[in-house]
Write a structure and sequence with these properties.
By secondary structure, the protein is mainly alpha-helical. The protein folds into two domains: about 210 residues, HUPs (Rossmann fold, 3-Layer(aba) Sandwich); about 80 residues, Tyrosyl-Transfer RNA Synthetase (Orthogonal Bundle), CATH 1.10.240. About 55% of the residues lie in helices and about 10% in strands. The strands form two sheets. It has a three-stranded parallel sheet. α9 links the parallel β4 and β5. The protein is elongated.
């Protein structure tokens, strides 16, 4: 237990390889949190089935890669409990019990429910699993009775449903089993992909943590810049350039100021500008690549960490489920 005595819970779906957006938006925040709180970080492999139930061939691979990326990026299993959702069966049991009390209208009003169905038209998402995934998400959270859940503003409706379920359970069974977790609002930097849109697996525009240095440099070479800057001697506008956005994240202030000034006067070309940010990015990612190489060569180390974390998480989950079944008299 940390000095604060507070607990944090967060997780990720293994839906693909982690990229810079995931690293800057979540993992960097997790690294800070594990110095302040008792942290539980889990791979939500059952959640991946809500949209990929018909295509499960790579889920195990993505679980492994996700864990490697977490550890390589600085998530420390000696300070945080790292585990896999499906290794702790209490997640499924609490999901079942909570599904008995959640009104269907609560699930249908979930803003993501219809948005995802519109967005992912190539898959049949008219399943109970997809409709009810917020209940599983609530179970994931409430099992560990966390004080805080790191979220962005767009995820607040999901956390509010968890709080509503906690209140409903406590009210129905007249027992204060579940505390209501608070949001730990995090500022996610908007990381643009190689095509200028938000970096996303679905767009195929990512720079992955598992990419090698040559791949990273090649991806940056092809990255879009100011569309109005056609020739080398044309002045550019850094304010609309995705490469300049990466400079603002990774480069020191003197380099940022240099790019801002010289791009506007065409004193620097896009190729040189990209090389400067590539050097900074490689510098930032090199420790991650070194850690990934060690973890990949010794898979037993990864298995030991997951087993130990899942045992620790399981003990907490069992205690919570005992409180639940006692309150429900089942």
């Amino acid at each position: 237990m940390t000095a604060s005595g507070k607990r944090v819970l967060s997780g990720m779906q293994p839906s693909g390889l982690l990229h810079l957006g995931n690293y800057l938006g979540a993992l960097e925040n997790w690294k800070t949190l594990q110095d302040q709180y008792e942290c539980y970080f889990f791979v939500a492999d059952w959640h991946a089935l809500s949209t990929n139930y018909a295509d499960t061939g790579r889920i195990r691979e993505f679980v492994r890669e996700l864990l490697i990326d977490w550890l390589a990026a600085g998530i420390d299993p000696s300070r945080s409990t790292v585990f896999v959702q499906s290794h702790v069966p209490q997640h499924a049991i609490l999901h079942l019990l909570l599904s008995m009390i959640v009104p269907v209208s609560w699930l249908e009003r979930n803003p993501t429910y219809k948005e995802k169905q519109e967005e992912i038209k190539e898959k049949d998402l008219s399943t109970y699993g997809f409709l009810g995934y917020p209940v599983l998400q609530a179970a994931d959270i409430l099992l560990y009775k966390p004080d805080f859940v790191p979220v962005g503003k767009d995820q607040l409706p999901h956390l509010e449903l968890t709080r509503e379920l906690a209140r409903r359970f406590n009210d129905i069974y007249k027992a204060p089993v579940f505390p209501e977790p608070k949001e730990h609002l995090t500022k996610f930097p908007k990381v643009l992909g190689t095509d200028g849109r938000k970096m996303s697996k679905s767009y195929g525009n990512t720079i992955n943590l598992s990419d090698s240095e040559p791949v990273v440099r090649q991806k940056l070479k092809t990255m879009v810049t100011d569309p109005a800057r056609v020739r080398r001697h044309d002045p550019g506008n850094p304010d609309v350039c995705p490469v300049y956005d990466l400079h603002k994240i990774f480069s020191p202030l003197p380099v940022i100021e240099q790019i801002n000034r010289e791009c506007r006067t065409a004193a620097i070309g896009c190729i040189d500008c990209k090389k400067l940010v590539a050097d900074r990015l490689v510098e930032r990612m090199s420790p991650i690549w070194e850690a990934r190489a060690k973890l990949t060569k010794d898979p037993s180390q990864l298995e030991d960490i997951v087993q130990a974390g899942s045992r620790q998480a399981g003990e907490v989950a069992k205690a919570t489920l005992a409180d639940v079944t006692e309150a429900m008299k089942v």
